[in-house]
Amino acid sequence: MLERDLRNLEPNIVTVGGFDGVHRGHQALIKTAHTLAMERELPLTLLTFEPLPQEFFKTPPPARLTTLREKLIALRPLGVNRVVALRFGSDLAQTSAQDFVQTILVRSLRSETVVVGENFRFGHRRLGDVELLEHLLAQAGCGLRIVAPEQAEGARISSTRIREALARGALEEAQRLLGHPYGMAGHIIHGQARGRTIGYPTANLLPHRRRAAVRGVFAVRVHGVGTLPYNGVASLGIRPGLGDGRELLEVHLFDWTGDLYGRLITVEFVAFLRDERRFDDWEHLRRAIDTDAREARLILASRPFQPSEESNPWGITAKP
Fold first, then answer.
1. pLDDT tens digits, one per residue of 105-133
2. What residues contact 164, with CB distance under 8 A and at least 6 apart?
3. pTM surpassing 0.85?
4. Domains of the chain, each with CATH number or no CATH
């Protein structure tokens, strides 16, 4: 499904964007492209960029909602046949709008029709807009379909808006905008096993982001351990006084015993509990986790898991 370089393809429908979060706006865009592809009996190609352009241009970069792996998982049920993730660097950043259309969209991807949002910008210094795109594609005999943005609560749904909600710990708002719960996927790695010494062993994941969109302590559900998700409490941050300065997601699963190292799981963030903070000693940390765990159990018991595609959009289940 994933390709990192351009090559000549058969004629196809192409949709273009960052697709960070694969939120409801992205889903509407892809649905339009998929319907068009089915009508024309053509494959659907999604063109995205890695790293995201904002990560290349901005310092510090914006928080990342989804890694490339998470994006691919979220795209699986949406009917995309091929994902092309172009390496975004100085060469691509300096590509003119005309060259972007002629070289990438027309010559390399062989777009029959391109599907984008009405605010789409492209090319060097983002000088290209949908009017220029339509003109350049028409010159090459290609079509353009423009999709209006999805609205929620009177405003446009965007990755920026979701980042802002997550930064406030407003997980239910973020879920409404995403169309599914917010989560992170990854393989469990070996940690320092310090949680085990105070009765709270953790499964540890690297967020694999230059900046995560959430930070703090959360009530969570973990998909990929059992047939149904396991409830738990998790901390995401740099572990003041304990860590090496890199972000780490540490998850304690309630009522679980066993070896999870190397397992691919998704951690679904259900409720924000508190900000990350530094503790003077292990006893104070243990007492804080006691409180966090009690609160997380109460919250998760009041919001029982309801199996559906939306409740587990990552499609990760335990291995038989």
1. 999 999 999 999 999 999 999 999 999 99
2. none
3. yes
4. 2-155 (3.40.50.620), 180-302 (2.40.30.30)
